[in-house]
Amino acid sequence: MSYQSSVRDRLARRIAGEIALSEHPGQTMKIWRERFRIPQIVLADHLSISPSVISDYESGRRKSPGTSTIRRFVRALLTLDEGNGGQVIAGFVRLMDVSLVDLNIVLAMADFPTPLKGKEFCRRLKCDIVAGKKYANRDLFGYTLVDIERAVKELDSAAFLKLFGATTERCLLFTRVTTGRAPMVAIKSQEFKPSLVVLHGTTEVDRLAIELSEQMHIPLAVCRITKAESLVRALRSLDSI
Q: Residues 69, 183: one domain?
């Protein structure tokens, strides 16, 4: 399941639950319809019913909706929002705690009790700095190990921010890397930047990745540890520093 579909499912359950448990389900339906900024006539057209049916539910003139009606109502809200660019759903991404670990996007993540210098981090993780060396001695307050293939496919900008955890002053490590271009381009498009980027799974770094590293003043390193499992163990050995 992708990050977006997980958020969508949780949001759908939340809306349906609020309607079903409400003392005034019609009013709750109206609240959610207005949150999604969907006119009655548009919702009715999508559901192939008369706008008066929507109005009757919302005003309480029609009896409480059954589970089938609630399900159709919720699906319609989400589908219509996605058709309009998904702005409302995207807003809920920031409010709903969906675990990137459970989705196998983040393989390891921790904050340090005391900061660790970037160069020392690289030494302990057997990393060679290939660009931005003059910026490599910044303090790091944590790390996040990311499966780059899943991240690129499944994370939008709002979800990408979750990779930083409590602080952006951390190292983002990307595994399953081919040339390093994808993670650096992804970081380039974000407002917030990490203090260090480490690539795992490649020995040949794309020239553009190096140029972006220098341009963004972010040190870029390549990890010589071969297996992802070994990298995770090495990272976890840093958790108690």
A: no
Count the domains in the chain.
2
**Pair 64, 165 in one domain:** no
* Cβ–Cβ under 8 Å, residues 171 and 197: yes
Residue 37, both tokens: 């900024």
Give 172-202 pLDDT, tens digit per residue.
999 999 999 999 999 998 888 999 999 999 9
* pLDDT, tens only, 30-45: 989 998 999 999 999 9
Residue 213 CB coordination number (10 Å) = 25
With respect to residue 99, please indicate whether it lies within any of the assigned structural domains: no
Question: For position 33, which CATH number holds?
Answer: 1.10.260.40
- Strand, helix or coil for residue 94: coil
User: β-strands 139-147, 106-117: how paired?
Assistant: antiparallel
The predicted model scores a pTM of 0.62
